[in-house]
Amino acid sequence: PRASLSELWAAAQVEGRTWAIAEISDEKPSSSLSDLATVSGSPTRAFAVLTNAGITVLEQQRPVDMLRALLAHPALQDAHVREFVAIYGLDESCAMCYTLLCEDPTRVGMQVLAGARRLLFEFGGVPRVEAPALGSSGDERVVLSGRHNGMAIYLGRVLEPIWARPATVGRSGRSSEAQLHVGVATSTLVDVQDQLRRLLHFITTNQRFVPDQLNQMPVQPAGGARGDAASCWQIEAASLGALYELMVHSIEAISFLCLLADFNLPAVSEGLPEAQRRQLAGIAFSQLVCGDAGREACRELILALINTQMKQDISIDSLSDVLTKRCASMFSASDVMLYKALELLRGARESEEGTEASDLAQEALNLLSGVAGTLSAAQLRDICASFEALGQHGAVAALALACARQSDPGNEAMAFWRDGAPENDAREPLYRKRMECYQCVVGMLEKRGDSALNGRNLCALPSDDALFQFVLYDWLLEHGQSTLLFDMPGGCVEQYLSAEPRSVEKGDMLWHYYVHSSQFHKAALVQRELACSREFDIGLAQRIEYLSLAIGNVKIALDAVRTGKQQGAAAAAAAASDDGDGLTALRETEDQLEVAQVQLEIQQQVQSQGHMEVVRELDLLYTISELYDRFAYPLRLWDAMLLIFRVSNHDDRQLVTDVWTSILRTALDDAERTGLMAVASKVTSLGPRLYPSPAFPLATITAILVGLARERPQEYAPGFVASTLVQAGVPHAAVFHALNAMITDRAPSNDMLVREVAALAVSWVDSHGHLDMPDTLTADSLPIMEVDTALSQYIINSTLATNIDLKNELQRAQVRLRQTF
Questions:
Q1: Any bridge partners for residue 180, and if so which?
Q2: Where does this polypeptide localize (predicted)?
Q3: Residue 362: in which H helix or E strand, if any?
Q4: pLDDT tens for residues 114-166?
Q5: What CATH number has the domain bearing residue 203?
Q6: Residue 134, Cβ density class (10 Å: 0-12 exposed, 13-18 middle, ≥19 buried)
Q7: Beta strand pairing call for 141-143 and 54-59
Q8: Domain boundaries, position 744
Q9: Which of these ranges, 309-323, 743-757, 795-809, has the smallest mean pLDDT?
Q10: What is the count of structural domains for the chain?
């Protein structure tokens, strides 16, 4: 800042006697009362002195003129520059430098320009933190450089003639209605614009204002007023960037006003409603540059200009080029296309002929498709509503999807969706914008109701946008139209149903989709995955059903592969791998189903015992080892343990014997049941499921049955053991060999065992004696000759033992048997 206010003077000798002094008037008198408020090209004040010797012209030396003379001095020293700065202050001195630097170089001289540039950059100072005055409680503040402040001062002086003046004014025209006129003379606008362009050119060609280039600087301070030197530079860079932007916008606003004047703004404004003309009249130039109302006024005026051009059947391409070149930040080619499309839609609504309206709507869609990405959500909704009112439902979908695609060219919203839509993600605004676009299509479908819910209409929708397809599928599911998904085009259905969040419903639809598209192997994989999943609340019976369906689909897939093999060697080679994988999957799924069926029995047994928590736990699938260790053994579920032994092919004879002993002993001792009949019932219920396997050791079970029969002689009837085993699914031959082995080993119940063999022979004759060929092998054949020989030996033994009853019984059985020869 200046140390004090002062006036400078210089003496000039004028010959003769002074008669009169008068100021030479300028055609453009300065509006400033201060000699400091000088801009490039403004003339100095001149005075004519009339003497008896003639007329002498004296020019008043303004501070900028003094600086010009100082810089033009060939012996300029730094002390002279510092003295000048001390008089006028650093900010004003820098502002004068900008005045000189923006002059015509031919009028200023290269030495003056070089000196002004040197003063600006070497003496212009740096931004700094200034501490509060001693005793003051204020905060530290950042003081920007004189180079920055001088630019702000000079820019303000350049814009001062037009800044507060109205850009447009209303004046009465030929008719009674007021017309709009440009509020500032074109010559004034051009002068201001020329000075702004010179300043802008100087800035863009001198990137030394801050350590980095102006267009690469951050616009936010890093550390605030208390930051270090870098923070001060950041603050200055942000402010310089704002001044630069103000220059650009001011230049474009002036170009826009000149363009309106060239295109006869009064005539253009006649097409505007009176209320709109009143609203646009009086808009200040400052609002045109900085305010939202001014920007909106620009759009309204451009729309009126475009409408005028179109009504005169004049192409707006040239207008678009001019607007894009002169007012790039205020208007673009996309705006021209938008306004032209809106005009076409208006014409379509007013058209009385359907074909013409459809053609106009299609032409509007073609224009809008190229600029869809520039539409705001509100504009898109309004335009879609216009198309919808015209019955152009396809145009609604095409425009909305084009807007979504152009708004997110990198498809980042899709990646955001796949990642589970994380919070505070930079991609979320893109995702929301696309959702707003899709809502226009969904809203249209909502309004059309049931008429839109058919495969033909849905298949007509564009299918190349996967995210839109997912939104559409959600809408279909909400309306209970899941079956329509199977007829949708593209490959998005599979991706949608496989994506998170997963659910049983989506899983069911996925395997139905695979079956519908004859992808049976994939359907089986999904069904098996659902059966084995632990994240869904699925009952055990439903899991078993999934496994059963999976087995069926694997078999169908294998049949298809084998059919392909039969079509030739090439097909066989291609299908060999699939065949092997399919067989492996089939075996694994069948094993899982077998285990699950055992688990179902365990669950039913547990449920009958009232252990409901365990019942719910058993809704998940477990391995065969887990079933034994966690449920069957701890709960003493003997029947289930035997089934587990069979499924796992477990061969621990002692353990199996203990289990069978426990089962049959429990049945025998149950007071509510009928002794040996209960034992027989238990064996016959388990036998068909266990025989043949290590879980049904025939010799052991035979011995247990014989032992229990001896304990209950009053309940025993000959043939009890043999008939029980036969009804359990054991062939007669196997039963004979088991009984005969015990007889050979001279078991203590020899007579009982012999009678069992006799009863077995009679039983077999009763069930197989009708065969024409006794030696025919069947699933339940009996070695007749071996049995006959054994009966003969039993008869001899009973004769020697004088057991007449047993002998007679054996002879009757042998006769029956020999009758089959």
A1: 170
A2: Nucleus
A3: helix 354-370
A4: 999 999 988 888 888 887 766 666 677 888 999 999 999 999 999 999 999 99
A5: 1.20.58.1780
A6: exposed
A7: unpaired
A8: 731-821
A9: 309-323
A10: 3
pLDDT of residue 275: 80
Kindly state whether residues 48 and 188 are assigned to the same domain: no
pLDDT at residue 376 in the model? 83
Mean pLDDT of 176-203: 90
Radius of gyration in angstroms for the set of CA atoms belonging to the chain, rounded to a whole number: 52
Asked whether residue 623 is domain-assigned, the answer is no
pLDDT band with cut points at 50, 70 and 90 for residue 214: very low
Looking at the structure, tell me whether residues 15 and 104 fall in a common domain: yes
> How far is the C-alpha of 749 from the C-alpha of 710, rounded, in Å?
8
State the DSSP string of 545-610.
HHHHHHHHHHHHHHHHHHHHHTT-HHHHHHHHHHHHHHHHHHHHHHHHHHHHHHHHHHHHHHHHTT
Burial bucket for residue 376 (CB in 10 Å: 0-12, 13-18, 19+): exposed
Structure tokens at 589: 């799924």
Distance CA 167, CA 162 (A): 8
Residue 623: pLDDT band by 50, 70, 90 thresholds?
very high
Residue 478 lies in a domain: no
Residue 571 clears pLDDT 50, i.e. is over it: no
Last residue of one domain, picked from the residues 124, 153, 188: 124
8 A C-beta contact, residue 807 and residue 798: yes
Predicted local confidence at residue 217, as pLDDT: 43
The tokens describing 366, both together, are 């073609």
Give residue for tokens 């065949």.
Answer: 579
Q: Are 718 and 735 in contact (CB under 8 A)?
A: no
User: What's the CA dihedral at 91, 95, 96, 99 to 10 degrees?
Assistant: 180
Residue 246 sits in the same domain as residue 273: yes
SS3 string, 621-671, reads CCCHHHHHHHHHCCCCCHHHHHHHHHHHCCCCHHHHHHHHHHHHHHHHHCC
Decide if 216 is inside a domain.
Answer: yes
Q: What angle do CA 635, 636, 640 make, to 5 degrees?
A: 100
Residue 453: pLDDT band with limits 50, 70, 90: low
Residue 428 has pLDDT above 90, yes or no: yes
Do 66 and 38 lie in one domain? The reply is yes
523-531: list long-range contacts, CB under 8 Å, 24+ apart: 523/549, 523/550, 523/553, 524/549, 524/550, 524/551, 524/553, 524/554, 524/557, 524/585, 524/589, 525/550, 525/585, 527/553, 528/585, 528/589, 528/592, 530/504, 531/592, 531/596, 531/621
Q: Are residues 112 and 145 in the same domain?
A: no
Shared domain check, 169 and 117: no
Q: How many residues does the chain have?
A: 821
The pTM assigned to this predicted structure is 0.58
Same domain, 99 and 194: no
Q: Strands 46-51 and 54-59, how do they pair?
A: antiparallel
Going by pLDDT thresholds of 50, 70 and 90, the confidence category of residue 226 is very low
Cβ neighbours for 240, distance < 8 A, ≥ 6 positions apart? 148, 151, 209, 210, 214, 217
- The per-residue pLDDT for 308 is 80
Whether residue 114 contacts residue 58, with contact meaning beta carbons closer than 8 Å, is answered with no
**Pair 153, 115 in one domain:** no
Domain end residue (candidates: 331, 358, 389): 331
pLDDT tier at 580 (50, 70, 90 boundaries)? low
> Any idea what the Cα angle at residue 646 is, between residues 686 and 597, rounded to 5°?
75
For 541-567, the pLDDT digits (tens) are 999 999 999 999 999 988 887 776 544
Q: What is the pLDDT of residues 757-770, one digit of tens each?
A: 999 988 888 887 55
Question: d(Cα 206, Cα 124) in Å, to the nearest integer?
Answer: 14
* Average confidence score pLDDT of the chain: 84
* 131, part of any domain: no
* Residues 6 or more apart whose Cβ sits within 8 Å of residue 561: 575, 578, 579, 582
Please, are residues 120 and 94 in contact by the beta-carbon 8 Å criterion?
yes
